[in-house]
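Justification of computing resources. Each target in the renewal requires a structure prediction run like the one illustrated here; the chain below, 287 residues long, is used simply to show the kind of job we budget for.
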Amino acid sequence: MNNIFSFPQSLQFKIGTVIDDVVKQFSRDYKEILDAIRSVAIEGVQGINWLLTSIPWFILILLVIFLGYKVSKKIKVGLLYGALLFFIGSAGMWEHMIETVSIVTAAVIISLVLGFPLGILIAMSKRAESIIRPILDLMQTMPAFVYLVPAVMLFNLGIMPALLATIIYSIVPMIRLTSHGIMYVDKEVKEAAIAFGSTKIQALIKVQIPQAIPTIMTGVNQTIMMAMSMVVTCAIIGAEGLGLDILIATNRVEMGKALLPGIAIVIIAIIFDRLTQGFIKKKEVSD
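Resulting structure tokens:
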């Protein structure tokens, strides 16, 4: 009678245990390779962190003011971005902001390096599109916390699993918008390039990719925003920076100490978003 109202236990299977065993066995079999990948990734993040910390704080603020003016042509916009960065430093969060920006920058660079060619591959091959697009749908709809578990199982706690989870979460818009931009370039323009003797590769490099740059830049913008949204989530597995401050303050139920790092993350996200959006608009106007 119970089987009518509840799913019978005899028909259930425990696939979660099987997946756990496979991942654990993989981490044991390829421990040396995984350790090498982790070392390279950590050195990369530390290199970016060293570069950013080598720049005096006021130079960094002046650079942001200049970039803000450059993309908006309004000095007050640049000064506003500089004032927001100054606020983060004056609130005692400068070092943690640099740590957060280092991890986000490393994740975005790797996402762009991997996502751009994958986007081109999808745009050029129907077979690749039929295989990769369902995977992208899965990656985009999967809750972000799920990515933390296999990342920790493979690389333990720390920067590397945070970097891996951030890349998996943020690479999708780069792939999608790169392929979208290339696929929807005016067919007549592409055909004209081929009619004048260009090969498909030459038409791709000299016509399709330049035409698709505004859409590709939108993908870069979205990748940065999604990487920023993983800052707090990755703090759970040991990523340092502003996210860790929020996590510690939340565990201690300290609203004020959680609020300030949250505001700092919003400020960084806004500055990244406005600067990349500004470059996109400038490119569209020049085209």
